[in-house]
Design brief:
Blueprint: E1 17-21, H1 29-41, E2 45-48, H2 66-78, E3 84-87, H3 94-97, H4 103-108, E4 114-116, H5 121-131, E5 135-137, H6 144-148, H7 150-161, E6 168-169, E7 175-178, E8 180-190, H8 191-197, E9 210-217, H9 221-234, E10 242-249, H10 254-265, E11 272-274, E12 287-289, E13 292-297, E14 302-306
Parallel strand pairs: 1-2, 1-3, 3-4, 4-5, 8-9, 9-10, 10-11
Antiparallel strand pairs: 5-12, 6-14, 7-11, 8-13, 13-14
Length: about 300
């Protein structure tokens, strides 16, 4: 089985207007402004959605009400003058607002780059399944990694403006956990969010035929075990073509996490590359989701190479 290829949005040009939204948690104003300055330095014109700096009156882990967060995202996506939509931060909250979006209107609008990670995984899945649009698993505007790490910044900048130059993703830490070679459509993100999507009305029925990217943060080994076991028991991983592993910050000693990943995923019999350099680590490389790619896992090579640029 082969997953369908979603539509790739167009790349950005200097002077493009980009919208910054907060679909999940509240955003520190100083970090947001620092991120906006970086975007301006790239020649972009960032505009902040009306409710980005809101905080929910009762639940301070949310950036305003579900309705306001959904409206900001939908308005930005459907605005023909906006060339891309970038998330300000993750946290928690996407699952509360994703079904409030008018997906008919989203599908009718012209596709554009959408960037985020962590809790934003639920939106990556929604854009893929419900709108047929490829997205970018990458740093968020107010994230410390984006503000401090030059490699993270350059990976996103090049993907947005010069996607032909970054078709191969990987860093020196990447290596084969299970050797082999696989081809498929990229998908995935934060593994706990993928597991939380199971059983919901619009969830992807299976990762079959895909190259699955997964990472997470602050999930103890037994909780990661439970998440991965749930994905296995549900059959969601049946037929997956290959697996790419990112960061596991705060999930315990890496050798323990590594042994767990091999124990739970090695039996699938597919190539697995570890420590590719995306997610909640010190470097968060931008990885296209919804793009056909080749995964190489050997003693000499551990890379993910896109068949086509992330953006058209």
């Amino acid at each position: 089985m082969t997953l369908p290829s979603p539509v790739r949005p167009p790349r950005l040009r200097p002077g493009a207007k980009v919208a910054v939204v907060a679909p999940s948690g509240p955003v520190p104003a100083d970090r947001l402004e620092a991120g906006l300055d970086l975007l301006r330095g790239w020649g972009l014109d960032p505009v902040v959605a009306p409710h980005v700096l809101d905080r929910h009156r009762e639940f301070d882990y949310l950036a305003g009400t579900d309705e306001a967060r959904a409206r900001d995202l939908q308005d930005a996506w459907c605005d023909p003058t906006v060339a891309a939509v970038l998330c300000a931060r993750g946290g928690y909250g996407v699952q509360r607002m994703v079904d409030l979006l008018d997906w008919d209107a989203v599908r009718a609008a012209a596709p554009k780059p959408f960037v985020g990670y962590s809790d934003i995984t639920a939106l990556h899945e929604a854009f893929a399944v419900r709108a047929g649009v490829a997205t970018l698993h990458g740093p968020m505007v107010a994230a410390l990694t984006f503000l401090k790490d030059p490699a993270t910044q350059e990976s996103l900048r090049a993907t947005l403006f010069e996607p032909d130059t970054v078709r191969t993703v990987g860093q020196a830490t990447a290596r084969a956990l299970v050797p082999g070679r696989a081809h498929g459509i990229t998908l995935g993100g934060c593994v706990s969010l993928l597991a939380a999507d199971l059983g919901t009305p619009h969830a992807r029925p299976s990762a079959a035929g895909g190259l699955l990217l997964i990472e997470d943060i602050e999930e103890e080994p037994y909780r990661l075990d439970r998440i991965l076991t749930q994905l296995l028991r549900s059959g969601w991983l049946d037929g997956v073509a290959g697996i790419v592993l990112g960061s596991w910050a705060g999930c315990g000693p890496y050798e323990t996490v590594r042994a767990l990943l091999l124990d739970r995923l090695g039996g699938l019999g597919v190539p697995i590359v570890e420590e590719l350099g995306f997610g909640h680590g010190p470097t968060n490389l931008t990885v296209p989701l919804g793009v056909p790619a080749v995964l190489e896992a050997s003693t000499d090579v551990a890379t993910l190479t896109m068949d086509v640029p992330a953006l058209s």
